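Let's do one together. I've listed all components of the complex below, 861 residues spread over two lines.
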Amino acid sequence: MSQRGKELASTFSPAEIEAPLYEKWISAGYFTADANSSKEPFSIVLPPPNVTGILHIGHALDQTLQDCLARIKRMKGYEVLWLPGMDHAGIATQNVVEKQLAAQGMSRHDLGREEFVSKVWQWKAESGGAILDQMRRLGDSVDWSRERFTMDDGMSNAVVTIFRKMYDAELIYRAERIINWCTRCLTALSDIEVEHQDDAGEFVQVRYGDGEQSIVVATTRAETMMGDGAVAVHPDDPRYKHMIGTEVLLPLVNRMIPIIADELVDPDFGTGAVKVTAAHDPNDFEMALRHNVPFVVIMNEHGIMEGSGTEFDGMDRFDARVAVVAKLKELGRIVAEKRPYIHAVGHCSRCDTTVEPRLSKQWFVKVAPLAKASADAVRSGAVKIEPEELAPRYFDWVDNMHDWCISRQLWWGHRIPVWYGPNGEMVVVGPGESAPVGYVQDLDVLDTWFSSGQWAFSTFGWPEKTNDLAKFYPTSVLVTGYDILFFWVVRMMMMSTFAMDGVPPFKTIMLHGLVRDQFGKKMSKSRGNVVDPLEFMDKYGADALRFTLARGANPGTDQALAEEWVGGSRNFATKLWNATRFAMMNGATVEGPIPDAASLNAIDKWILSRLTETIRDADSLFEKFEFAKASELIYHFAWDDLCDWYLELAKESFATGSAADSQRVLGHVLDQLMRLLHPLMPFITEELWVSLTGGESLVIAKWPEANLNYLDKTAENLVTQMQAVITEVRRFRNDQGVKATAKIPGRLTTSGELAKYASAMGFVLKLEAKEFTPTAAFEIGSVKCELDLSGTVDVVAERARLTKDLATIQKDQQTAQVKLGNEGFMAKAPAEVVTEIKERLVKTQAEIERITAALAVLPSA
RNA sequence: GGGUGCUUAGCUCAGUGGUAGAGCGUCUCGUUUACACCGAGAAUGUCGGGGGUUCGAAACCCUCAGCGCCCA
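Okay, and this is what the predicted structure of the assembly comes out as:
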């Protein structure tokens, strides 16, 4: 562990300090929350990663932002709880273990349910949760003593409890419906587990019936026509009005089906007549209910045609489509066909198989009352969405939600706590209860999101009335990507408001974007542009990765990420390291009181003023979740103000040995800067701060407060002038081909306050203060600069420099003149703007005179 | 099809009415005892096109074009 005054290595190596520092924080127990504390609580639940997951760049962003908030609040004196854990991830995890079995030529059915599930637990114990170790690498200040898993005993108990509670409240029911079915995973999927893609299908028009009594329907799914129970048209469609109520012959199966009228039919789509396949299409299902159309099932769970009584039985659904169309063509019933026909088709979000709408008996959550409560919580302002521009998307979703299918035909997950009796009885078995003898349990498990929807309260011990629940619920803020707003956030809102008597699970929902590649393209395996956060941490350190991500995190928007930018953040870390090392070599200290501002020189006053502004503005940006802007602000203070200017300007006093005040000021500035940066870059700041101050740890150090007494516009103006002078002289030297490192005789003369700092400026400019005969002289504002170039001035270069300056300033002058000559501007622009432009005009005129004069005395080339 | 967002320097992005900015990249010079993972200096934009509002527009309105996302 580092100690005060320890000499810092000349190069910063993240790998050497990160792991030991994390160990230090853990063993000190800094991240362990105390539910009995009198401090105000601040709590976050980590969006639980899948137990199968490894840390990807999206996690790194999500967790960096959460850690940053947690660390700030901890430093601000809150009792902070950041609760970690994992999700059992039903389908994903089952797939992983099934794949392993398949490698041995086995299926889960060879093992049987019980053995398979224990195999999954075994897998979890051995290979699951790799992501948790990777989170340590990132520096996450989570409370490991409270780590949870969505299938641990406590959460399992909570799941059963809430199922019972919702069932009793008639919010859970069982029904036969059209659900999204994956023919590969062999399970139902909820709407959000279906991804719509534009696929190249076909659009064919088929003539049903014959002669007078015929109608042409348009469809993309010809293979389902054997299951048709009707043809539907719009009630007001003049083309078909006369046919409503009559029957037509359904080809291939030669069955008579009615023509019905329903508002749902779009007369402008296709022929305006559609087939109604009640058992294989959700819209058709709705229509069928209204019109008593029979449900004809013609496909099995694998997507194989079955029960149609035609030659197509036994064929795969996609082969059948081809065969059916071919047969219809043979029969002369194809009127038109379009191929390819691009349209949206649902795919399983897990395995990409085309989803099949399927009639089946499933468990559902009646979402209307829950969704309304969730919407109201945001509308009333009880829950804030950040950035608020994303709130309409939330409303759009919760206001139009379909009932949620929660049963899954899987083995890995929370088994539905419903038991069936021998005579069709059904009983929900709550916690601690047991089913009557002879009853058998429902075979299905619950949707993963059913349990993770309880993450904000079950993790605190619900349904027990625990101290954690009392202290930390509702949580302060939920940080997550906008991409899982619907998957998870809405579910948490619904489940929590229901379980917690109307108290929503968080006060603020902070949404961030996705991390994309360096060209702003989505990362994907197929594109080959996926980056590995662990690799970046290995190469550049965790702080560099975190800082890069935070610096790109504008609220609610995606960010691009390139390896070079992480490298840039590593450079920043090295800069901090070297600046601190240099400061300490020059006696920077936090010992003793900070001298009264009044007694300080302008350079010290200036850096304190800038520090104050930086703390004030960064703090306010952090409070508004403006991570990118806060990071940018601190970065420029540290690099530009502190390193490029303050340290350079202070070198003279360090060199001359009269630097006691500056040593104390510099110590203070670094101390405060490290605190301010700690949430973003916890490792390096800790290392440097402990070394500088001898303090125990930044994790428990006090968050910096802006001392407004340090604000000093006079000092700021003075230093701004000094910067202008130095920059101009450097430019002159550069144009004259004088190396920046070369010491040359020279002097700066001026009057007033600025005169006191002529030697500091001269020191930065490497001007030798000795007797000499100037060969070059020029003015920057009120400052006269005389130099001995030990030779003649490069007249061509100097003329070019001055001519360019003149052109720039003349343009400025013209702009100002045009404005002031504009009657409308003079009459309507605010007084302060007019004053500002007038001042600008005066300045430009002075500059023009100065440059013109300088050009005039310049010898001709 | 409905909704929504974007278009600013080579790239990625800030910038919601008053002289166009950052990071990375580019060019020139430079190893000065904090730092070459660095320093100094420089170049680079009719702010997607067109129209309008305004004394004044990158910003506000309309329109067109291109790209993206969400939902169906």
